[in-house]
Predict the 3D structure of the following.
Amino acid sequence: MYAITIPEPGGPEALVWAEVPDPVPGEGEVLVEVVSSAVNRADLLQRQGFYSPPPGSSPYPGLECAGRIAEVGPGVSGWSAGDEVCALLVGGGYAEKVVVPAGQLLPVPKGLDLVTAAALPEVTSTVWSNVFMIAQLRPGETFLVHGGSSGIGTMAIQLAKSVGAKVAVTAGSRKKLDFCAELGADILIDYREQDFVAEIKAATDGAGADVILDNMGAKYLNRNVDALAINGRLAIIGMQGGVKGELNIATLLGKRGAITATTLRARPLAEKAAVVAAVREHVWPLIEGGHVRPIVDQRLPMSDAAQGHRVLEESGHIGKVLLTRQ
C-alpha cells in the first residue's frame, strides 16, 4: 500500500507518499481501507519530530479516518467486511489501509457521506471526553472554548449549545467569529484586540466561565484561571502557547477550581473504547438528527498532505481539513 511517511522530521515537505508494507489485523482488530483522513495539530508535531507515536503503533501520521472494513481480525464481533466506518486512531490514517482496534470504530452517521465522516472521530472524542465526561458541563453554565473556529472549536460550540450551555469563543478574525455565531456562540471575543478575561467577566456579570476548553497551554494558564467562575473547571488539551507556565495557586484555591489535562492518543485501549462508546451514544443521535454537523474547510488529495499541513500552520481555515483518496 501507499502511505504518508516521514523519512526525516521537518517542514511540510518532509511528508512523502511512499510504498510501505500492508498492515495485518491482529486479535480484536479490523483492517480498514481508508477513503479519507483529517489533519490534526498533533500530526504537525509528529512531522516536526516532537510527538512520536506510542511504541508498537503505526509510524505514519493520521489520528482519524473513514473508510470500509476490508478484513475482520480474530475475536471481533459486530462488524463485517464492507461496513462503512470512521475510526479514532493512534496513528496511520494518512494511508490506503490502517489497522484499528474494534472498540475505536464508529458507524458512519446516517445522512452523512463517507468522506466527511473522517472529520468526526477526533473532535467528537476530544470534546465529549473533556467537556462532558471530565468537566461535566451542565445546562445553564457558561462555556468558553479557545480557537472557536477550529475543528475542535466548531464541534465544541455545537455540543455545548445542544445541552443548553451559554457559549463564549475566542478567535482571531471577524470572519471566524461570525461563523462561530452562526453555530450558536453567544459571546464573541477577538483575542487579537480584546482581553478574553475581561470580556468573559463582563458578559457574565463578573462570574466568569464555568468550563474552559483550552488549546494554548502555558501562555493562557493564569489568565484562564482568572477567567474561571467559582467551582470552575479548566480542561487543557493543547500546548500551542508553550509547555511551561506559572500558576497562581491562591487564585485557583479561592475559586475552588479544577484543572485537568488530557490527550487521547496514549490512553489505554479500554479508555479510548469507553470514550468512543459514549460518543456513539450521546453525539451520534445529535448528528443524525441534524442538530450537530462536522465543519469542513477543504478537501485535499492525501498524497498532498503537505498542503494540508500548510493550511493548518497558516491558521486561516475554519473547521477541519480532510485528506481524501477519492
